[in-house]
Amino acid sequence: MIALALMVMAATVQRPTTPPGLQRCCAPKVVDATGKTVGEIITYDVAFPSIPLNAWVRYEVKGGDSVALLVGPEAFRPTTGLGGSAVVFTSNDCSGDAFLNQISPPLAKRYAAVLPEGGAGWPFQQTHAWLYVTDPLPARVSPGATVFHSQWESNNTCVPYPAPGQTFPPNQFGFWAKKVEDLYAKFKRPFWVP
Question: What's the pTM value of the predicted model, to 2 decimals?
Answer without folding.
Answer: 0.83
